[in-house]
Amino acid sequence: MTTPAMKVLHVAAEVFPLVKTGGLADVVAALPVAQAQQGADVRLLLPGLPAILDQVSGLRCVIDIGACFGALRVRLLRARLPGDGLVVYVVEAPYLYKRGGNPYQNAHGEEWPDNLQRFALLGWIAAHLAAGDADPDWAPDVVHAHDWHAAMSCAYIADHAATPAASVYTVHNLAYQGLFPMHDWATLGLASRLMSPAGLEYHGQLSFMKAGLKFSDRVTTVSPSYAREISTIEFGCGLDGVVRSRAAQVRGILNGIDTAVWNPATDPAIAAVYDAARPDGKAACRRALQAEAGLDLDDAALVVAIVSRLTSQKGLDLVLAALPELLAQGVQFAIQGTGDAALESAFRAAQDQSPGRVQVFTGYDEARAHRLIAGADAIAVPSRFEPCGLTQLYGLRYGTLPIVRRVGGLADTVVDASAAAVAEDRATGFVFDVPSPQAFAQAVQRALEARRQPVLWARLRDRAMAQQHSWEGPAREYLALYDEALAPLRADGRAR
Ligand code: ADP
Ligand code: GLC
Fold this sequence. Notes:
With 496 residues, the protein is of the alpha/beta class. It contains 19 helices and 18 strands.
């Protein structure tokens, strides 16, 4: 007799390539596929944003829910994702989800005023799927909720103690917490025992992040270092105490990357394909990038890429402050970023002051992100904090050496080119400690010097490209964690 496949429901607000504001979408696209390849029966639950409803196929209604959370018409639909064909549940609620902007904000960058309803509904439906009363044909053993947008799944599941499913909550970024006024409590329809500091209350507000941290069976974050960091005051964003209270259930599982989407040997977006054995194409990508970005066609320059949300998290003020000194030394910057208006205009001003040395592409452009990462010599990620970070992993795979701050997932994935690490053939990039323009500039200068030594540079690049960050290992770790989370339910006969 074969054991039935574990049924897993991932709950999230974005998935690449349908809707993406950051690395969360990349994770939600690739992790479920890797788990399905390992035999799990994996489905997704997503809000019915226009870009999602437009791009899935084979939509059919699973259940007509009627009016709830302020929406008159709510239906749960079932469909398939494009590409991998994974089954996806989509919450159709036009009043809540049918709008432009991104999943969290309007076109002016303001939070949607009804985010409480929009994301409580998502969690509430996850809990009904878990209870087995939303889809008569399928119910999950484990609900895996991602970030505060999906965190209410854990509270609604915990509110019905008899639910035969376990919940796992992944913190992709503790800084975004989903805080709402306490007077909206009644809208959630939760038992009053959850409305206290031991529950969702956070200094007089409602915290969706706390719902995930307190009521899931297991909490994960996206790197081992960030898992340690969030239990400290420095990185805990006010929730370090809550994190410490769940210490035995908190685990850091390093993100993987989609090695089919991010593969320099097959990438359709780049000027020439290449791999570690035949790296020549990378030089063509570098020339193409300099041409596209209007950078001087200078072979001696160190071309540094940045592909990033422009927020204070990412430490880009350090780059701006170090820029004049670095440009004078022969560094070029190609930046693709969107977000904070002040950062955008500061980078634009730098570009105007130094044509041929700095190019800033604002807006969101997936193909250009590939061209920058393939064409640059190095990629800078000087973050103040970084739960995992994906662009340094893309850089490693494309032989584009990461220049990163020693924090979070950056510390876990890049080995500094110290004399010892180089001698042991372990070095893959340049790491600095202090979040200061000087420390960043020194790391870039070390990269510039290393590039002037072709044998050393080739060795670092080979080592970087040899790093394995596919989802296979992390997907297995999550499946083992689900087993752990299910063990108590199985022990008392509550699991399916
Ligand atoms: P975060 O999720 O904090 O933004 P990550 O490094 O985990 O950081 O993921 C960022 C993802 O978003 C990567 O896939 C990166 O290539 C992509 N990205 C960020 N900004 C842009 C942009 N302006 N255009 C295209 N892709 C971008
Ligand atoms: C968050 C983090 C980033 C991480 C991504 C995917 O957006 O800021 O570090 O890589 O989630 O887990």
